[in-house]
Task: inverse folding
């Protein structure tokens, strides 16, 4: 018993009582720290397991959504050319299964009709599987994501348009410079 040991020791030497008190405080302090460390460690392990479980679940959901979207793309590609026309896209969207798939992917099917024009980056009036998958997966979530996708596609289209204009201007200049060089050769001769 600590109290008896401290009382006996203090009868002979007063400083031993202080030593026992310091030892008691240090021991109590150490036991408290070990107990808190055990609780903190348990909480961290539980949090880590939960985070890993959530990450695994999100990855599984993403893979399942991708499979469903790939299947929807194949089902919608009626003519089998590997692309969805706007007509095929609208028909796919009328399917209750596709509406459920889009809803599970976080996309409102009522606004998905306008999604075709946004996703058709190259302006070909058709979507290949890459445009379809990337666009649908990126546009899920809040309206800000959809606006960002639309802006990205608009910038891409503008870039393609500017590149076409630059190429035609370069061809025009090449022809004009060639004609000018021919005329200079004739004048020089």
Result:
């Amino acid at each position: 018993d600590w109290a008896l040991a401290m009382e006996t020791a203090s009868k002979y030497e007063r400083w031993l009582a202080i030593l026992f008190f310091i030892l008691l405080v240090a021991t109590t302090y150490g036991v408290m720290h070990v107990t808190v460390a055990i609780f903190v460690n348990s909480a961290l392990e539980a949090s880590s397991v939960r985070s890993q479980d959530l990450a695994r679940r999100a990855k599984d959901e993403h893979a399942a959504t991708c499979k469903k979207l790939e299947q929807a793309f194949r089902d919608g590609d009626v003519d089998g050319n590997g692309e969805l026309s706007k007509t095929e896209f609208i028909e796919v969207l009328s399917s209750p299964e596709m509406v459920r798939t889009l809803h599970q992917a976080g996309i409102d099917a009522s606004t998905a009709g306008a999604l075709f024009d946004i996703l058709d980056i190259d302006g070909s009036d058709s979507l290949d599987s890459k445009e379809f998958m990337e666009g649908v997966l990126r546009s899920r979530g809040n309206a800000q994501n959809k606006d960002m996708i639309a802006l990205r596609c608009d910038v891409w289209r503008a870039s393609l348009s500017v590149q076409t204009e630059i190429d035609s201007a370069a061809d025009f200049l090449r022809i004009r410079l060639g004609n000018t060089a021919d005329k200079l050769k004739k004048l020089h001769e």
